[in-house]
Amino acid sequence: MRQRGFRLEHFRTKLGRKIVSLFLVCALLPTGVLSFFSYQRVRIQLRDQSMETMETRALNAQMGALERLQSVESELILMAASPMVDQALAGKRDTPSQANRLRRLSALTLFTEGETTPLVGDLTVVPQLSPQTLVDLDRGRTALEVVRRAGARQELLMARALDRDDGRSGVLWGRIVADSLWSTAQVYAIDITGDEIDLQDDKGFCVLDGALQPLDCAGAMVSWTDDGLPESINISDDSYYKGSFSWVSGGERFAGQYRVFPLSGFSSEGGNWTVLVGRGERGIIEPLTDFRRMLLSIFVLTLAVVLGLSAHRIRQIMEPLAALRSGTQRIAANDFAARVNISSGDEFEELATSFNDMASQVGSLVEDLEELSWSTITTLARTIDAKSPWTAGHSERVTTMAIRIGRELGLPEKDLERLHRGGLLHDIGKIGVPASIIDKEGPLTDSEWQKMRDHVTIGARILEPLTPLADVIPIVLYHHERWDGKGYPDGLAGTDIPWLARILCVADTYDAMRSDRPYRTGLGPDETLEEIAMCSGSQFDADAVLAFVDCQVRAEKETPALESVGSRLGAPRDSWRTAF
Ligand SMILES: [Fe+2]
Question: Taking each helix axis from N to C terminus, what angle separates 499-514 and 413-425, rounded to the nearest 10 degrees?
Fold first, then answer.
């Protein structure tokens, strides 16, 4: 019967596992490889885009810082020309404060001939200028100095030489409001376009002086720089040198862009400054989270489709296989009418057609063989019976009777078939008994009796080489055993005697008693039946006799004599001389 629907057991079959493996390799492997390379490609693109953005922002920050330094310089120059400075140069200390005019400077101090005169704010100590810086100041350039003091924030100072026509001279120092350069005090930086660089979360911004010491940092880079600056920053003497950097801080890797910018137009002993713009790697690849989710969905969807297709394909294969297996099992059980119906339109259908042709041919061959077998057995039985005119037709009659008894007892077909073959062959051993003994009219001598009894062992020996008839040998060998153990050849008793042999014994005895013999005339049916009934439980198995009587009564339409037999069953007496 064709099995419909997919079952999980199909996945556990060798073929099912092979199909699933093939589908998985063919579908998931390309999907996985494609996903992997797509992911890597997108990751690289995201990183490249982020680096480009940071490079632009570093440039903007640099330009913005320069522009604001120039603004500071302009403010210092403006203040240098102010009346407040003139009066200070003239030695007047009670000059009006110009503090409210300062925007990018938080303090002003006049330095003249070793004397420091604070004009605005508390700038009382100024650094010692180098000879080169003094030369630059004389040439009209503005000096830019970074002053670092322990425990305090570094100061950015700007200096401008004062040289009046009346011979008064000095240096005007101003302290720069650092936040006015890049607004790093806020959480954002302002680039040259005025846009705010968002420094929230993982973004950072930092300006280093020529010694790579932070002038100011903002955003996440405040904490990053606590662990030191990345070694990948390479400061070159070349102007506008730029590059990328990466380093690990606080367990997180981050990358960024740096840009060195010269303080052109200023005299700076500290060297060029450097702008850093960085961002954590996690933030850079954060957009990949959605991409990963999408890839996972594609992977799961592909897996589901693969399993679905595999299940469908496995079912298409396993159903015909199951039908073919069922067909072969039925053939093995001698059901040659078994046919397989497959309409898959592929090689399975061709295989089913071949299978059905084979089953048909095998069935015909087996039928022919069985017919030949039965014909051979029947021929053998008639050959045995033909040996003596007294036993003509004996084997076939005994067989008929034994089968009737067997049916009365409800034996299965297999046992009835054994009874059939056993009945036909039960006296085959008489081939080895001289006809003079079989046909002897007078009493047999002991030697003759022994030869007559030997027909059961001779019959068993004849059948021994015939393997298909091995199951009837017990019938042939023991059909002369008696229930009370007085039979031959082994003197078996009771249920030690094979059941079918006990049944055949009754049928054999009945036919022998009914038949004429050289030494007596056959008995009538009633008398025979009564005699057999009398020997129930002594010579014969009582159940076999009871079944025999029942079927005889039914077959011979019941006679008063037969009816009376049943009531006397179970009253054994000594047996009488049976046929052999
Ligand atoms: Fe016999």
Answer: 50
Give a yes or no: residue 214 inside a domain.
yes
For tokens 């039914």, the residue is 554
Q: From the CA of 479, how far away is ligand 1's center (Å)?
A: 7
> From ligand 1's centre to the CA of 523, what distance in Å?
18
* pLDDT tens-digit map of 268-316: 877 788 888 888 888 888 888 888 898 889 889 988 888 888 888 888 8
Q: What's the total number of domains in the chain?
A: 2
Q: Does residue 512 share a domain with residue 413?
A: yes
Q: Sort residue 434 into left (φ over 0), alpha (ψ -120 to 50) or beta.
A: beta
Q: Which domain holds residue 491?
A: 386-567
**How remote is the CA of residue 448 from the centroid of ligand 1, in Å?**
15
* Cα 400 to Cα 406: distance, rounded to the nearest angstrom: 10
Do 33 and 158 share a structural domain?
A: yes
Task: Tell me the residues surrounding ligand 1 (ion) with CB < 5 Å.
Answer: 427, 580
Using the mean position of ligand 1's atoms as its centre, give its distance from the Cα of residue 539 in Å.
15
pLDDT digits (tens, 9 = 90+) for 79-137: 888 888 888 877 776 555 666 677 888 888 988 887 888 888 888 888 888 888 889 98
Strand partners, 247: 254
pTM summary value: 0.53
